[in-house]
Amino acid sequence: MESKRPLYIADADFDSIPETAEEGAGREGNNRRSGQEGRHQTSSSPFAALSTMSTYDQELAAARKAASLAARLCQKVQRALLQSDVQSKSDKTPVTVADYGSQALVSFILQRELPSENFSLVAEEDSGDLRTASGTETLRRITEVVNETLANDGSYSSTLSAEDILAAIDSGKSEGGPVGRHWVLDPIDGTKGFLRGDQYAIALGLLDEGKVVLGVLACPNLPLASIAGKEDSNKGVGCLFFAKIGSGTYMQSLDGSSPVKVNVSATENTEDASFFESYEAAHSMHDLTSSIAKKLGVKAPPVRMDSQAKYGALSRGDGAIYMRFPHKGYREKIWDHAAGCIVVTEAGGVVTDASGQPLDFSKGRHLNLDTGIVVTNQKLMPLLLKAVRESLEEQVSSL
Ligand SMILES: Nc1ncnc2c1ncn2[C@@H]1O[C@H](COP(=O)(O)O)[C@@H](OP(=O)(O)O)[C@H]1O
Ligand SMILES: [Mg+2]
Ligand SMILES: [Mg+2]
Ligand SMILES: [Mg+2]
């Protein structure tokens, strides 16, 4: 049964946030910080900063609402996925009714909640294929599922036409860049995981003058409890991670439980540090990450997972390292990392390219990267970068 409760999340919700993730969710996992030694705790209450800072609060509330509602849409489509809901894009990657529907819904909600003449959205999908004769049925399904989701939520009285849906999707064509504010959206990150019934995420970030200032990750198939050491990690109602610059990272269940603050693993011991990587070998070189893990003495096998759910899981200490090394020639997109990056950094982690440089989200729709992306805590990063350097050198010399 779908809940009909509107998803609007007011600032007052922060009043009930418990002090730690353990308190709120009764989670397992033994490799996290014992106390709240987070960088942003300047007062006895972890929420003082949130309640006094007004910057980006409205934007964050709108982003949480948009991502939560988009997650409901995706869950509905995933439950009843039809073969006709899946298309292939010109670059041969898959796209579904849910990718388009999620993008239309998030775009609609952001524009409704935050009316602005300067609305700018950098998003993955466009309506090109939907405007062709073969896209007509897909567009009908998208329109239907978006309107059903809006009607079930009940906060808006609007019914969107097929033209409104196309326009909402195409608002995502912005080029982003270093000036002004730009929303960055991956309506379904990990479409291949979504199709397999595995992990996927709705990833929404906000850039202000080229920097990510807030991020929301809705992960409908990620359990609220730690997945560290678990075989079956696809249960429960799903998680919503959110972070605002200078205010830490919080997690709540997608059905609206109280948010809890999360922190990355504090482990300083590489042997205990399990690592995440893409499930898809085509997205990241598994042989290279295996050589890096070996140099670090990592004992556990890699945790292979689709989407930015990896950043979410890392932000709460389910594992300590995430490595991503695309095959030669691939250009990373900003929507694949913007939300995940701030979710991890606000939880005390570090995200860099393979040479240790921070990711630069100000260059347009792509990231200009040196080889790969690595993520871990501050203590482990120098060791990880050293192992990466050595493994990359060995890879070059073996050619
Ligand atoms: N050859 C490739 N190398 C690296 N990443 C790729 C790729 N082809 C697609 N991707 C990206 O990898 C993302 C999924 O990452 P992951 O492997 O962590 O699940 C995809 O996001 P979408 O699913 O939104 O298209 C897509 O942007
Ligand atoms: Mg895609
Ligand atoms: Mg993606
Ligand atoms: Mg996507």
UniProtKB/TrEMBL annotation:
EC number: 3.1.3.7
Pathway(s): Signal transduction; phosphatidylinositol signaling pathway
Bias-annotated ranges (Acidic residues): 12-22
Binding site for Mg(2+): 124, 186, 188-189, 336
Region Disordered, annotated ranges: 1-48
Cofactor: Mg(2+)
Keyword set, alphabetical order: Hydrolase, Magnesium, Metal-binding, Multifunctional enzyme
Presence of keyword Hydrolase: yes
GO molecular function: 3'(2'),5'-bisphosphate nucleotidase activity; inositol-1,4-bisphosphate 1-phosphatase activity; metal ion binding
Family recorded in the similarity comment: Belongs to the inositol monophosphatase superfamily.
Task of the protein: Converts adenosine 3'-phosphate 5'-phosphosulfate (PAPS) to adenosine 5'-phosphosulfate (APS) and 3'(2')-phosphoadenosine 5'-phosphate (PAP) to AMP.
Protein name per the record: 3'(2'),5'-bisphosphate nucleotidase
Naturally occurring in which organism (per UniProt): Punica granatum (Pomegranate)
